[in-house]
Amino acid sequence: MHDQRERIVSIDIEDEMKNSYLDYAMSVIIGRALPDVRDGLKPVHRRIIYTMNGLGVQYGKPFKKCARIVGECMGKYHPHGDTAIYDTLVRMAQDFSQRYTLVDGQGNFGSIDGDPPAAYRYTEARMSKIAGELLTDIDKETVDFVPNFDGEEMEPTVLPAAIPNLLINGSSGIAVGMATNIPPHNISETVDAVIAYVDNPDITVAELMKFIPGPDFPTGSFICGISGIRQAYETGRGKIVLRAKAYVEQQKNGKEAIIVTEIPYMVLKQRLIEQIAELVRDKKIEGITDLRDESDREGMRIYIELRRGENTNIVLNQLYKHTKMQTSFGIIMLAIVDGRPRYLPLLKIIHYYVEHRKDVVIRRSRYELEKAEHRAHIVEGLRIAIDNIDAIIKIIRKSKDVDEARVTLMERFKLSIDQANAILDMRLQRLTALETEKLVEEYKELIKKIEYFRAVLRNPKMVLKIIKDELKEVKKNYADPRKTEIVAEAEELDIEDLIAEENMVITVSHQGYIKRIPTSTYRKQRRGGKGITGMSTKEEDWVEHLFIGTTHNYILFFTNKGKVYRLKVYDIPQGNRYSKGKAIINLLPVETGELVTAMIPIANYDDKHFIFMATRMGTVKKVNLMEFENMQKKGKIAILLDEGDLLECVSLTNGQNEIFMASKSGMATRFHESDVRSVGRATRGVIGMDLEKGDEIVGMEIFREGASILTVCENGYGKKTPVEEYRLIHRGGKGVINIRTTERNGQVISIKEVMEDDELILMTQHGMVIRLTISTLRDLSRATQGVRLIKLEEGDKLTGVARVCEEEEEEQEEITQETAIKDEEEAKTKTEETKGEE
Predict the structure, then answer these.
(1) Cα–Cα nearest to 327, from 291, 275, 258
(2) Considering only CA atoms, which of 272, 282, 264 is closest in space to residue 304?
């Protein structure tokens, strides 16, 4: 039978799901995942501490089994399962998880290696000393209490928190749709900052950071840079980079070892060591010969031994790049304020903490005042009783019961019911002269207290002074040195930090294949030698561009269309003498028909240098180097070209150079760079050399003092001519004869500015390479045919020329050799000393 009292209510399932999920979300946000801005605790932390206080396991008292604490907390305040409570209790006891532990643990509470804690039936705990500061004056009506989940107990909604716990211990948690990740801080720095705020509520973040320079993690390590810290303190969100502390230790066997003593926060040491071992095994990091954990009770020590002669900085940078030796910490300062989650900059966190302490001090003062006033009232009644003791005794003896005596005393001496009860409860020993004097002294003290508490409640400045004095006492009791060191900002680790710097030959073939090869690949030969194979090419392809640079240089790629692109040399794939290389279109976003015509290395950008360009039709243009600093992947316009013209040559100048230009028909001109004014990128140039019809520019050079001009023709002939042979004129002239372009020589393919100690790399259309020294070439006058530079096979032609500074390489080799000899002698000495000690 249908019950008429039943009511069926139709609801929209979408609305029900929305409302129910919002209720659940708010329950998680407020009741589980986020800390309160006032005491810095989530409900589970607060309940554990309050439970331990109720069990009497304060600091200095005997430990109790964690099972007892977990059971008491779960049964009275936190009905969410024993695992959640015990895991929280364990974390509160771990000195590598909390900057200032709130629980003293006895037994196995886990380790920084990731070892799990023992079960709660084996471990014991009590409150730490600093945890007691969170509960100070909780029994003086300083905070509100609410019924627990079953209504049988009362629990605090917040703790009085005499320490700024949210900042000193931080907090992390994932709620619904939001998360918090507040880093820990040093207590003395935090206290100083709070006091500074109390003195000046208008203090800025920059001024606060003089007191709190940044977070202070329990595991130490380095914080790299302050920009992320400042952003987090100003907005409530930011990201900081943490790096392990490591130093290089010289070993007796001549090797070096990297010693890691501190690791980033929340990184497990054993997992870090396993990660390094995996990278070494997979050969992603090379040069490590031994890895072991030498940590003991004295502290952490991870030993990473390197192969003899290995570059320590490169290996260390590889470790930072590929392992948890460098991590980022995303700061999200989200906390509960007045029952709602809010993102809080540093000033707001301190503000709400100070407001909480004001409320605690005022409520405590009000409680103490009421207590003192009540006691003073009682003492006044006792003094009346002592002064009229005979009459009071007489009244009591005549009364038939206590109620009659109480009423008679109240009527006779104008007493309150509390005073009358106190008189009736008074022991006879209080009638002695000494006890009477004590009563008088107590009354005077009570009057002073009453005046003081009334003054505190009247005067906000006194409240602030109390807050400051109590914070100073906290600092005195718990101050300790900062563990985390803040260092200069670490630039994002690029592959450049992981690659040793060395000279490279960069080649680009006519069909657009590019590669880099170490210059050491090429052996020196006498003039006229046959050369070695430098690049494997198809019959219809040949090497068109050849360049020298280091792995850490930027390479600016200028194309025939007047655009410029940028790569690091290490971004160019490395090959060998026989490899074809990689299609440049896979490295640069060049358009169809766009070919690279010039490449120059740039070590650093500044406004003292210029990019000087020359086109095939003789136009020149000068642009400040800074115009090319911010380069996008899609490139930039370097020069606007006339129809039919192409960008041919590019050089880096200092604004005071002389420019030498030569054409394929054997003409050349020399003028000063100052003849061409600096302009913007997206502009046309001016006439640099007036060419005859059909002639083209093949090269442009700038001069070093004492340099000569090497002119190279396509048939393997060339000549070296002193610069002085070419008179200095203004730009725009036709120039003078540079070399006779006879049938033997062929047309000019390139010019190079050279010194006596320079060396050349010549490359032919068929991929043959020769390396020769300039000193083997004698000077020839301007209008001559020159001498043979390379013996070409039938049908082959020269296509590319580059210069190598051999003197610098030889000096480097000598230094390396001297260093090796010195290292060997030191190793022998150490071996002898070791034998002597044995």
Answers:
(1) 275
(2) 272
The answer on pLDDT for 378 being more than 60 is: yes
In the block, tokens 């003197």 appear at: 807
Please state, in angstroms and rounded to a whole number, the distance separating the CA atoms of residues 378 and 417: 10
Q: How far apart are CA 42 and CA 80, in angstroms?
A: 14
Phi, psi of 217 (to 5 degrees): -85, 150
Query: Do residues 518 and 558 touch, judged by C-beta distance below 8 A?
Result: no
The amino acid at 184: P
β-bridge pairing 768-773 and 532-533: antiparallel
SS3 28: helix
**Would you list the DSSP string of 246-288?**
EEEEE-TTS-EEEEEEE--TT--HHHHHHHHHHHHHTTSS-SE
More confident call, 363 vs 588 = 363
Where do we find the tokens 């990660």? 275
Angle, helices 389-398 vs 402-413, to 10°: value is 140
Integer Cα distance of 220 and 214 in angstroms: 12
* Average pLDDT of the segment spanning 759-788: 83
Which of 59, 122, 247, 578 is labelled catalytic?
122
> At 764, phi and psi to the nearest 5?
-105, 170
pLDDT digits (tens, 9 = 90+) for 235-276: 999 999 999 999 999 888 888 999 999 999 999 999 999 999
Residue with tokens 């502390």: 245
User: CA-CA distance, 19 to 12, in Å (whole number)?
Assistant: 11
Integer Cα distance of 769 and 798 in angstroms: 10
Q: How many residues are recorded in the chain? A: 838
pLDDT band at 537 (very low <50, low <70, confident <90, very high): very low
**Separation of alpha carbons 610 and 656, rounded Å:** 10
Nearest Cα to 622, choosing from 632, 614, 630?
614
User: Does the annotation mark 86 as catalytic?
Assistant: no
- How far is C-alpha 753 from the geometric centre of its chain's CA atoms? 46
What are 372's two structure tokens? 């003192």
pLDDT band, residue 521 (cuts 50/70/90): low
What is the SS3 assignment for 453? Answer: helix
829: amino acid identity, one letter: T
**Side chain identity at 139, as an amino acid letter?**
D
Closest to 475 in 3D by CA, of 201, 215, 136, 193: 193
Spatial CB neighbours of 394, under 8 Å, sequence gap ≥ 6? none
Count of CA atoms in the C-beta half-sphere (13 A) of 368: 21
By CB atoms closer than 10 A (0-12, 13-18, 19+), residue 827 is: middle
Residues contacting 16, CB < 8 A, separation 6+: none
Mean pLDDT across 780-784:
84
Alpha-carbon gap, residue 516 to 498, rounded angstroms = 17
Helix (H, G, I), strand (E, B) or coil at 211: coil
Q: Which of 261, 234, 253 is nearest to 112 (CA)?
A: 261
Give Cα separations from 90 to 32, 106, 515 (angstroms).
17, 11, 57
Using DSSP bridges, classify how beta strands 485-487 and 222-224 pair: parallel, antiparallel or unpaired.
parallel
For 706, other C-beta atoms within 10 Å of its C-beta total 10
Taking a C-beta distance cutoff of 8 angstroms, is the pair 205, 233 a contact? yes
* Sequence-distant (≥ 6) Cβ neighbours of residue 295 within 8 angstroms: 269, 301, 302
pTM, entire model: 0.64
Q: What's the sign of the alpha-carbon dihedral 186, 187, 190, 196? A: negative
- Which structural domains are found in the chain, ordered by start? 22-189 (3.90.199.10), 245-324 (3.30.1360.40), 348-478 (1.10.268.10), 499-812 (2.120.10.90)
Are 133 and 163 a contacting pair, CB within 8 Å?
Answer: yes
Please count the other Cβ atoms lying within 10 Å of the Cβ belonging to residue 100.
21
